[in-house]
Amino acid sequence: MLDVLSDVVRDVLNIDGFSATMLAVMVGWSALLLHIAVESKLYTTLYLPGMILGGLLSFYLARTFGIQLSPYRDANAIMLSLSGIVPGFVLTLLAIRLMQWVQERRRPLTIETRL
Q1: For a tag on the chain, would you pick the N or C end, based on fewer CB atoms within 10 A?
Q2: How many angstroms separate the CA atoms of 111 and 38, rounded?
Q3: What angle, rounded to 10 degrees, do the helices at 41-65 and 73-106 form?
Q4: Rounded to whole angstroms, how far apart are CA atoms 69 and 84?
């Protein structure tokens, strides 16, 4: 199990510089648009790791399974970045909503005191 995990981490860290740059630019623009939309630095910061990991995972899966979305290297890097950022964002959103739902369910029932 640890061998598989170390292989994944090694392959993710071995992406080329251009792909890493494209991923950083796409995540930066996504974070900027998200910050403009929600106007919260906290939520923007919470979504960043999911978007970065989603982008890195898309490059790993493309390399592992030989997926090529475009014959051009530049366009392929951009499409892979976006195809990983979007699911990473959605999974982070679902995780945050699930945590909020669990927190609300665990809230103790109390009698409200009225003044």
Answers
A1: C
A2: 33
A3: 130
A4: 13
Tokens of 105: 């369910």
Q: Where are the domains of the chain?
A: 2-106
For residue 94, which amino acid is it?
A: L
Q: Which of 40, 33, 19, 21 is nearest to 86 (CA)?
A: 33
Tell me the two tokens of residue 48. Answer: 């960043």
φ/ψ (deg, to 5) at 100: -65, -40
Q: What is the pLDDT of residues 63-90, one digit of tens each?
A: 889 999 899 988 999 999 999 999 999 9
The string of pLDDT tens digits covering residues 26-44 is 999 999 999 999 988 998 9
